Structure formats: structure tokens, C-alpha cells
Amino acid sequence: MTKEFYLKHHTFHIKAIFAALKDIFEKNVYADKAIEKVMKANKYWDVRERAFVSDVTYDMVRNWRLILASSGVEPEAKLSDRNLWMIFGAYLVFDGYQLPESNYFKGIHEKKIVSQLEKFHKIRKIRESVPDWLDALGEKELGKDWDKVIRALNQRPTTVLRANSLKINPKELQTLLEAENITEASLIVWSPDAVELKFPRNVFRTEAFHKGLFEVQDASSQMVSEFLNVQPGMRVVDACAGAGGKTLHLASLMKNKGRIIALDVKEKKLEELKKRATRADVRIVETRAIDSSKVVKRLKDTADRLLLDVPCSGLGVLRRNPDSKWKLNLEEIERVKTIQREILTNFSDITKVGGKMVYATCSILPSEGEDQVQWFLKNVGDKWNLIGEKRYSPEVYHADGFYMALLERLK
Q1: List of domains in the chain
Q2: Residue 4 pLDDT class (50, 70, 90 cuts)
């Protein structure tokens, strides 16, 4: 259904969007949680209603600075209903719609909004809706490439699936999805297990999902596990496993043969990993919560392969988490850089001599990627060797931004 339809018949949905925006910008709630709250309060909405509310909320958050500046609402003003209707009116004009006849838009001048949009389009930090500090940091670290990178990160993301190769290949998954009326799926040449959906769909309701035939995982994220070059029978440690997206991919690449030890500081995430592993028919994963330094020390010199998908700024996944640019700050980025170095220092010896390690971040910043690896190599002398590194930049691959380095332990 079009926005015009909802504007005419369903102002209730728009007010639900406003409730989510208030939570995001006034209560500092993460966007996915704010939308989830709205969905739980409206359990009887159909798929189209849910998609409308979710898509518009994310789109407004993604372009918040631009539409706020064009609306005439002061940046520090409370998000009253009147102000939200003014901001929403600016969003509709930005999105190419003509404002309908409605009391909600009374006093809003469409031509003035167009004029403001044209004016602010010339200012990158407003056009791409990023804070001043982030625009300055991006330009400092990426130079002339920053303009293209932030433009790519401000686009709507696609849904990408990873075919579970223990059960199905990407072509077979594509055919199976077509049978479930998901006909717009295509394969991604550079990511072997990836299937991309042209339009957002609720894939979690499909029979294919419940059978464990795929996981939702961006194409560049999938390449992290590929880069580690695991083989069946190996002993592998995923030291920052989280809910296990890459852990499960490693298991499929190992053909369910060998052993994977998945570590994380959050036991709740490891519990989710176990559920996902059961659905995917993965049988070689053991989870261990990092509740003391002993957990890591006991694993010293034991792994053929080590994956360090470290905490980071998340600036490579702004397409999916656009609200994070309003929650991040320079102090937080410096904090995660310190954590990255601590993990490299304290976890790298899990790898056996002759074994390999991948250091990965979902960040576009060299200071979280290449610079950290060079710092590590400088501090370990001739103990480690850099085999190769890869950066998946969003403007080149039309995917999330990822950096990964493959290193070999020599001594």
C-alpha cells in the first residue's frame, strides 16, 4: 500500500511511528527495540501495516537531520505532536510526495520545505544526516572517499540470507523461496552462500527458516568466516561469538566436522546461539561464557584457527542501525579501540604456533582496522605475520562495511 493510502485512512499508523520516534530520540531507546514495542502493542496488524510503520520509522531516523532542518522545527525542541507532524510533512516532501489536504499539515508550506531541502543538499553533514563530529572524523580518516562511503551508508539496506550449506546451496534456496512466493531473490557473485532479497520480507515466517535452511546475515559479514579458511576436523575458537552468526557459518564450512568453541561475555547471547545451532543442525559447537580470565588462559595454544570479530563502533552497519549515529560519540569510539587492543593482546595466544587468526570489525575506520593490526604486529615483534587483509567498503560492494585481517602465528 502507498503512503497516500495510509495518510488518508490510517493516521493511527503514523501516530505509532511518532511514538517510536519519541522513544528513539527522547528516551534513547534503540530503534529496533522502539519498533518492537510498537509492534507488540499492535499484534493484529498485517504484514503490510508492520512493514509501513517499520520502513518509515527507519527512513526518518536515517534522514533525521535533513528533514528536521527542512521542517523548521528547532533541533532541541520537544517532539510534540505538532512538531512531529511538521517533521513528518518535511519527510513526505523529501520522499517525493505531495502533502495531502489535512488539518495535520495546516500551516506547513511545501515550497518552503523544497527550498530548504535544496539548500541543505549542498551541505554533506546535513544531506547525509550525520553529527558534526562524525562528518569530521570520516573526512579525517577516509579523505575524499568519505563522501561516497557515507552516501552508501545512508541508503536503505537489503535483506541478505546465508544458505546453510549443511542442508542446501544458494541456488536451491532461491528456488525454495520462490515456492514460498519470495520471487525477487538473487545470488551475490562475490559472497558464495549469499542470497539477496530485492524487497524486505518477513523471512522468519517461512518454512525454509524453521527448517534451518538459512540465517539472515549480510554478504560482507559472511566473508569473515570465509577469510579464516577453516577445514573439516579443525579446532576453532570464535572468541567474540555473540549470538553466533559467524560461528554457525564456520560450522557449515567445516561440514560439521571438528570442534568450535564459542566464547562471549554475555551468556544470554550464547543461549541464543545454542537455539540457532539446533535449528541449523550444527553439532560441533561448544559454548563457554567468559566469566573470568581463566577461561581464555585455559585455551592457550589450542586453536588451529581463531576468530576475533571484536566490538567496534559499528559504523559499517549504519544502513541497518541508523540511530546509532545519534547515540555514538568520540569517547565511545576511543573506548572500543582500547577494548580491541586488549582482545588482540589477551586472546591471540589461543592460536597454536602455525595456526591462523582473523581480526575483524564492522567499521569503516582504518583506526579500528588496519591501524590496530599494525599496532599489534609492532608489539609482538616477529611472533606473528600478516598474510593478507580485506576491506569491504559499502560504496563498492553495496553491503555493510567490514574490515578483516588474516594473521599467522610463527612462534
Answers
A1: 3-153 (no CATH), 159-216 (3.30.70.1170), 223-409 (3.40.50.150)
A2: low
